[in-house]
Amino acid sequence: MEGLVELLESLSGQAGKLAKRLTAYRPLLSDPVNNASVRARAVEEIARLARAFPESEARTKVLEWLNEESQAVEKSREEFRFEFGRRLVAGLEGSGLTARGQLPTLRIGCFTLRTDFDAGTATVFWGPEVEKLKSGLRLVPAELARTLRAYHEALKDKSVEPAKLAGLLHSAYQRIVTLNNLPPGTRVFLLDLLAEVTMLVQPAAFRLNPVQEKFVEYPRVRFSFDLYRLRQAGLFQAGEDRMKLHVANFDATTEKARALWVPDNEEGEGTHYSYVSFNKGG
User: Fold this and answer.
1) How does 131-140 read in b/e, with b if 16+ C-beta sit within 10 Å?
2) Average model confidence (pLDDT) across the chain
3) Residue 223, Cβ neighbours under 10 Å: how many?
4) Of 38, 58, 82, which residue sits at a domain end?
5) Is the pLDDT higher at 147 or at 266?
6) Are 125 and 114 in contact (CB under 8 A)?
7) How far apart, in whole angstroms, are the C-alpha atoms of residue 181 and residue 188?
8) Residue at a domain's end among 82, 111, 135
9) Has residue 239 got a pLDDT over 50?
10) pTM of this prediction?
């Protein structure tokens, strides 16, 4: 009898775990296609437990079920991928955002959506995966469409008007040039101007009492979008000076402190810029 009780208790424990996993799996079949990724992970876990179970009729039946269910999961995943794109496009209707490319990576307007069907999650980026906006999003087309629409609307609603931005950039540029005793027309890092412009857009309440609650954020992505709008409007003139954006060299495009990606259009094409300068002239 040595060890027999322990063996039986072990088998009982393993059987209990298998039964618990199978019971938890059953509700997933109520929506097999949308639950495809969750089902795949659950099937892997059940298979792991089944392989550790001793040879028996129960083990054989579980393995047979796993073989059939694995095939069913793959069919559901294929159907989900097919439906995913269609449902995402439907969720974007009326937003002005269009989807291009092929899964797992899609370009949505000036955004990039990278999907992971194995994990059942997605990540949203600004530009061609330039700035990560949010990761770990559920792979639900309607929810992702709402997220993308919200980002798009926020950029438009909070955008600084092109003419005003040109003036702010000129003021920020003049401050940097003056403080550093630089000659007029000197190229200044575009990202150095961002910090200055951020202070210039603060409300009077912040200037009177500069506390966090009164601070207005002006992140890189919004700056990038506002520069795009400024370029589209062609409003480079500020007083007697005219602004020029200088394209970044290839090495600089990988360093956030040295370059900023700015859209060329709302189809996701864009250019990295490193410097800005203002020179006399119309």
Assistant:
1) bebeeebebb
2) 89
3) 21
4) 82
5) 147
6) yes
7) 12
8) 82
9) yes
10) 0.80
